[in-house]
């Protein structure tokens, strides 16, 4: 069982200062976020929140580190493969039948890029037009830079069919592969904060928000789901993580299409 951890005195004031400095609302995250803040304070030998805030205020690199520490990036190509094959064999063909091959798609919380590139590979296989690209957003600058380079360790390709590795990747050494330009050109990565960035309205036919909201409070989850739904076109599909459920889907004007898929009415 995880040991109970409580923030030191001054945490509320620290949260207010962080919001003013960086436009980050720490209350939007689950309560365990203060444990991460404390770990960073220990790293920089700060005895209180005021000392750590002074470091954040003066050093842009420390602010970047702080933002990166809020995000958890665990990813691989075609993570939970059966979900992706369902997307390829059923979900995308049905969207093509309804809307044609020109589909707008978005990987929200794209981390180091494996999810967005996996979607781009499916788009290439199904001859989809994604005008002018698949959107991919993440708050983590370091993760986004990895995505832009498109170079991955072979273990991250464990779920990629061997013929697709030959087709869509270039081997650059014994352990690393690079995504081919034909796939990289299909994706535009942006450093964006989902919490305070306005979403496009009625734009997307498919949104992947897999394991994006699980680190947020219940109230923030609801707000984000509301924003995602408004970003979908009527009839558009939202995919969540394999273990996630939107329990109040009716109030969001969604209908479930199985365990991890929801359609905007």
TrEMBL record:
<keyword id="KW-0949">S-adenosyl-L-methionine</keyword>
<dbReference type="InterPro" id="IPR022641">
    <property type="entry name" value="CheR_N"/>
</dbReference>
<dbReference type="InterPro" id="IPR050903">
    <property type="entry name" value="Bact_Chemotaxis_MeTrfase"/>
</dbReference>
<dbReference type="InterPro" id="IPR029063">
    <property type="entry name" value="SAM-dependent_MTases_sf"/>
</dbReference>
<dbReference type="InterPro" id="IPR022642">
    <property type="entry name" value="CheR_C"/>
</dbReference>
<keyword id="KW-0489">Methyltransferase</keyword>
<dbReference type="Pfam" id="PF01739">
    <property type="entry name" value="CheR"/>
</dbReference>
<protein>
    <submittedName>
        <fullName>CheR methyltransferase, SAM binding domain protein</fullName>
    </submittedName>
</protein>
<dbReference type="GO" id="GO:0032259">
    <property type="term" value="P:methylation"/>
</dbReference>
<feature type="domain" description="CheR-type methyltransferase">
    <location>
        <begin position="11"/>
        <end position="265"/>
    </location>
</feature>
<dbReference type="GO" id="GO:0008757">
    <property type="term" value="F:S-adenosylmethionine-dependent methyltransferase activity"/>
</dbReference>
<dbReference type="InterPro" id="IPR000780">
    <property type="entry name" value="CheR_MeTrfase"/>
</dbReference>
<keyword id="KW-0808">Transferase</keyword>
<dbReference type="Pfam" id="PF03705">
    <property type="entry name" value="CheR_N"/>
</dbReference>
């Amino acid at each position: 069982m995880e040991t109970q951890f409580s923030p030191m005195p001054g945490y509320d004031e620290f949260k207010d200062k962080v919001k003013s400095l960086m436009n980050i609302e720490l209350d939007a995250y689950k309560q365990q976020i203060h444990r991460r803040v404390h770990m960073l304070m220990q790293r920089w030998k700060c005895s209180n929140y005021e000392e750590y805030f002074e470091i954040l205020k003066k050093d842009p690199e420390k602010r970047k580190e702080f933002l990166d520490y809020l995000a958890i990036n665990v990813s691989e190509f075609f993570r939970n493969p059966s979900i992706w094959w369902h997307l390829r064999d059923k979900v995308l063909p049905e969207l093509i039948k309804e809307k044609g091959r020109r589909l707008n798609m978005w990987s929200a919380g794209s981390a180091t890029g494996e999810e967005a590139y996996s979607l781009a590979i499916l788009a290439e296989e199904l001859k989809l037009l994604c005008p002018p690209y698949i959107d991919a957003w993440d708050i983590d600058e370091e993760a986004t830079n990895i995505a832009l380079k498109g170079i991955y360790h072979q273990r991250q390709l464990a779920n990629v069919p061997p013929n697709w590795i030959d087709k869509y990747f270039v081997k650059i050494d014994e352990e690393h592969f690079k995504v081919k330009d034909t796939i990289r050109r299909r994706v535009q990565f942006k450093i964006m904060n989902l919490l305070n960035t306005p979403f496009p309205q009625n734009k997307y036919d498919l949104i992947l928000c897999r394991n994006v909201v699980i680190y947020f409070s219940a109230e923030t989850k609801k707000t984000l789901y509301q924003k995602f739904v408004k970003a979908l076109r009527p009839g558009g599909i939202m995919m969540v993580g394999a273990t996630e459920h939107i329990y109040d889907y009716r109030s969001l004007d969604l209908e479930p299409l199985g365990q991890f898929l929801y359609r905007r009415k």
